[in-house]
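Session log. Operator J.P. requested a structure for one protein chain; no other inputs attached. Running the standard single-chain path with C-alpha cell output.
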Amino acid sequence: MDMKDAEKILPPKILNDVKESFKEYKLTASQKEKALKLIIDLYHKSCYEPGEAVGVVTAQSISEPATQMTMRTYHVAGAAQILTTQGLPRLIEIFDARRVPKTPNMRIYLKKQFNTKEGAAKVAAKIQETLLEHITYRPSIDLLNAQLEFMFDMDIVKERKVNLESLPDVIKELIKTDVSVKVRKDSIAIKPKKEVTVAALQKLKAKLMKVHVNGIKSIKQVIVSQEDSGWILSTMGTNLAKVLEMPEVDGRYTTTNHIHEVLKVLGVEAARNIIYREAHGAMDEQGLDVDVRHILLVADTMTSDGVIKAIGRYGVAGAKGSVLARANFEETIKHLTKAAATAEIDMLESIVENVMINQVVPVGTGMFDLVFKPKKE
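Structure written below.
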C-alpha cells in the first residue's frame, strides 16, 4: 500500500495530517507502508453507515459509563493542590453549560525565557490577587483623630511584590470616598476629610479590607509545580483575558476550565475544544473509556449556533424544530398549548415524534422508501 492508494481512500484532512507526520518522523518505506495500512484500517472502523443513529449511540455511550462515576466533588492528590470539581458533578456542570463553574481554575504555561523556578515564582506573585486585608493586620479605629490605621505584614508585602508608594492612589480611586492616605514605614493611616460617625468608620474599614492592591482580579491562589514541560502555574480562580496579556505567559497552551470565559475571549471553536477536553478529562480520571467522537458530537451540538447551549430544556432539547420532540422531553403541556395557539405544524421528520405516533423511524432502512415493481408477464 502506497500514498496513491491512500489518496483514493482517505479524506484530504486526514491525508494532510499523515503526510505531515511522515515528514516529521522520517519513516522508511516499509514503516510508511505499515503505518498507512493501520491508518486506513482505523479509518474504515471509524466510519458509520448512512442512516446510522449516531445521536442515540452517543447518548448511550456517554450516559451508561456516567452511571459508574462517583459523586466525589473534589480531588486532592497532595497537600499543594488546587481543589477542583471532578466526576459526575463536573460532567453535569459541563453539559448544563453552567455560567460559572463551582471551582474555576487555570493552568498557566510560561515562555521559554521565564520557564525557571525563580521566573515562575515571580510570575505567580504578579498574578495572585492581593487585597489590603492580605498585607495588613490589626486594623484599628483611632477615635481621637477619627482615622483608620492598618499595620503592614512586611514579609507578605515583599513576597507579593506590593508597591507601597502607589497605595494612596489605588485606595482613593477604588473606595470613591474623599480621604487622606499616609503611608508610613510599617503602617498606613486613612482619614476621611469630612466628619464621620464611628459607624461610618466601621463601614469604611470593611470596604478598605477588600481594596484590590496587586495581582489579577479573581485569581485567589497560585501554586507552582514542575512537570515534564517545565514549570506550570495552577490557579484557583480564573481571568483568561488578563493572564493572556502578560508578556511572560505562553498563550498557546494556557487554559481555563471556564467554558463561557473561553467563548468570550477566544471564540466558539476554542469553547468547543474546552467542552471536549473537560468532559473527556472528567471521564478519563474516573477510568471510563469513551470514544472521543461521542464527546466531540456533543461538543459540536452544544456550539453549532455560535453560542454555548446546554443539553436541556433551555438549550438543545428545548430548541428542537419538532413540537412533539420538545413535548416529549419536558414541560409537555406548555409546548403543546403554545403550538396549538400559534398553529405550529410538525413535519414528523425526526426519530422521537415518529416513535410517538407509531410510524417508521427515519433511521437505517427507514431512511428511504422502497417500491417493488414486478416484471409484467
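Operator note: The longest strand covers residues 136-142.
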